[in-house]
Write the structure tokens for this entry.
Amino acid sequence: MFQTLYSAPATCRRHSDGPFADERDRYLRHCADFGATRGTLCQKGNELLWFTHHLGSQAPDGVDLEKLQEIASERQSICKGRTAGQRLINIARPWLRFLGWWHEPVIEIRFHNQLDQFVAWMRDERGLSPLTVERWRAYAGTFLQWCDQTDRQLPTLRPDDIDTYFVSARPGRWSRVSVSHIASALRVFLRFTATRGGCDPHLAETIRGPRIYQQESLPYAPEWSDVRRLLADTVTGKPRDIRDRAILMLLAIYGLRRGEVASLRLDQVDWCGRALRIFRLKRRQAQVYPLVPSVAEALARYIDTVRPRSTRPEIFLRMHAPWRPIVPSSIYSIVSRRFATLGIQAAHRGPHALRHACAARLVADGLTLKEIGDHLGHRSSSSTRIYAKVDIKSLREVGDFDLGDLQ
């Protein structure tokens, strides 16, 4: 790899003869496979060469943060740039992780065993989706950190302690809906903990979140004309617009969830059969859709002209190296950024707003709630009932109904 990057024989020899040359060479090849440019590889190679000269022969036994910061401080002291030390850390730490030489800082949490068991139970026994596992783990972890900071023990935890947590943990930052979700997650966690003798078996039942009435809210769908504006804004030759157009179409036309878009794979698109096979997260089963010509064109253009060459099966990858699949949170950023750029006013500006727009459009076209629920991948009809409240035409017909003699 050094011969490819450095044309001067003396420079190439200096890299080849330096400490841990094989390890540096393997890492640079790995970065090249994930799309790193020649300039980036040269910078990584130069920083790693300097780093290994100051690392010492005991590096394979492990390098911790203190040692890395010590070398970075020395680098900073001899360089004029203000970011030299941080740049060395940013390059050296992934190399150490790649080799398995990095000692991750250990943050001691008194209840980490209970949290790990809870995650394993949700994932392996309950079979919850990764997003739900991640969210409930975060809720339970925040609560356990609060217990640790306030010196509370799970076996002696009382209802008053739970009330204190909701009052004092993050006052003013949780909405009514958020408090309801957190209360539900904590009930599940404490029930699980009680089955293992970790807390009072009646404690979970004392948690009462705010009452959230079913169907109390309206869907936060933007106008379909605004959806058209979003799509029209992507009709350019810019690589980012080409990628975003395909993503926006999947959200608005098929009503996909952001996780379903992020996990969409190349083998789920049947080009010959003009079909799109989606694995619905909530139903936990595949669903086949006809591949709309406009969506097929947008996907093909992205795959053929923009998508980096990669062995990854996911369709949507990052725009810059390393070529990794985009994550669901990136889908949110893509959509919300375009809402803000065009000045579209909506209660919510994320990908779920486009899902609601898709449902509202289907209602306006006269589809039944059952058909809409099937299109959106709902598990039950109750999830689709909210869209009945935006069927203005039908509501007006009810309002104009003549009761005659019953009045």
The chain is about 55% helix and 5% strand. The domain at 112-206 is CATH 1.10.150.130 (DNA polymerase; domain 1).
